[in-house]
Design brief:
Molybdopterin biosynthesis moeA protein, domain 3, 4 domains, 7 helices, elongated, disordered N terminus
Length: 396
């Protein structure tokens, strides 16, 4: 295992590449009902099972007629009767095979005593305002390609084509183990020396957003035997295991060294903060990631590392957040050798945003977690000054 200080530790990108170089994801697929498929990734090409319209359909609200009666110009329709000379045909309606064209309803006036008056009907030909068989979707037509992450409108297209379930890529199962003898479950009023365990709640919903299947375990105390057993059980059930806490050099920080002993250690420490004490190892073919316990640090590693692993498992590109240009309202000191997450609070309205850095120490944890934007500074010698324009990633 690499036991590196921050001046030699891998960058975020190098860390991800190192993990991926050792990991061979056990991908698979499963049948999923269409209503449960938003966000799922198609494991194979999906084709239409039937055609729509089945025969033909009106392209608009109107009346359907026999176009041959208009060959010499518009006929006298004052004595026409519905069902004999014409029929109503709303958008999408099939209609009697005696008729072959549709006149838009705006050109039709229904006379009080029956019959019709038509206006602007000069060129009526077979098939006018009629959608042919398969004009919406044709049997055998490719609707969705393999590897597509399905959106709600993709589901509508599949339903039109007669698809009721799909073969979806298996979700990566990601286990999350919160560790720390000081932790108490959410909803507990903490006593002196205790802290509320919140990382698993955040991780669960971040994993769901990533398309993963979260497996959140109960709090593991800082006892080596219990921690080892929790990691073994998680490794047997998951594609990736996340251990929250115990990654640094405190008296009860056992996890970083433990995962290296249990498997192949990849690195400990990273040239990025918060979250610098992050560690990674491989337990067979299962990545073990030791996330730092502080919530903002845990969030950051989830955001850049776990998100990349989930996308890789699903064969998807890493998602890119929308950015806005914003003017810094405060100076940022240089962070040579380290990439630094800066949580930002935006003010103003686009395109004239201002950005103020949210400090991430002590009582500012909640403000940092709930900030509206973020920026990761480069590890170079140059800082940022008040008035500089930055690309802020939107979080809200």
């Amino acid at each position: 295992m690499l036991d590196l200080h921050n001046d030699k530790a891998p960058s975020r990108r190098e860390a991800v590449e190192l993990i991926l170089s050792r990991w061979k994801p056990a991908r698979g697929s499963e049948r999923v009902a269409l209503d449960a498929a938003p966000g799922r990734v198609a494991a194979s090409d999906i084709f239409a099972a039937h055609s729509l319209p089945v025969v033909r359909a009106s392209a608009m609200d109107g009346i359907c007629v026999d176009s041959s009666r208009f060959a010499g110009g518009a006929p006298d329709t004052s004595l026409w009767r519905e069902g004999r000379d014409y029929a109503r045909a709303d958008t999408g309606d099939d209609f009697d095979d005696r008729f072959d064209a549709v006149i838009q309803i705006e050109s039709v006036s229904f006379l009080p005593g029956g019959g019709l008056a038509l206006t602007g009907v000069d060129d009526l030909r077979p098939g006018l305002n009629v959608r042919g068989c398969g004009s919406s979707v044709m049997e055998g037509e490719l609707i969705v390609r393999a590897g597509t992450a399905l959106r709600p409108f993709d589901l509508a297209a599949l339903a039109l084509g007669g698809v009721s379930e799909i073969e979806a890529a298996k979700k990566p199962v990601v286990a999350f183990i919160p560790t720390g003898s000081e932790l108490v479950p959410q909803g507990t009023v903490p006593r002196r020396g205790q802290a509320v365990e919140c990382n698993s709640l955040m991780a669960r919903h971040m994993l769901l957003e990533m398309g993963a299947e979260p497996l959140c375990l109960s709090i593991a105390r800082d006892e080596p035997a219990a921690l080892r057993e929790a990691i073994r059980r998680a490794g047997a059930a998951a594609d990736v295991v996340l251990i929250s806490g115990g990654s640094s050099k405190g008296g009860e920080d056992f996890c970083a060294g433990m995962i290296a002993e249990m498997g192949e250690g990849l690195f400990h420490w990273i040239a990025s903060a918060p979250g610098r004490p992050m560690a990674a190892a491989m337990l067979g073919n299962v990545p073990l990631l030791n996330l730092p316990g502080p919530p903002v640090a845990s969030y950051f590693v989830m955001d850049w590392c776990v998100r990349a692993l989930a996308a890789h498992f699903l064969g998807q590109p890493e998602p890119v957040r929308k950015t806005v240009r914003a003017e810094l309202l405060v100076d940022m000191e240089p962070t040579e050798g380290m990439e630094i997450l800066r949580k930002l609070e935006l003010s103003g309205t686009g395109p004239s945003y201002g950005a103020r850095v949210v400090e991430m120490r002590g009582v500012s944890t909640v403000k940092a977690l709930t900030s509206s934007a973020q920026l990761v500074t480069d590890p170079g010698p140059e800082g940022r000054r008040r008035g500089d324009i930055v690309d802020a990633e939107l979080l809200r």
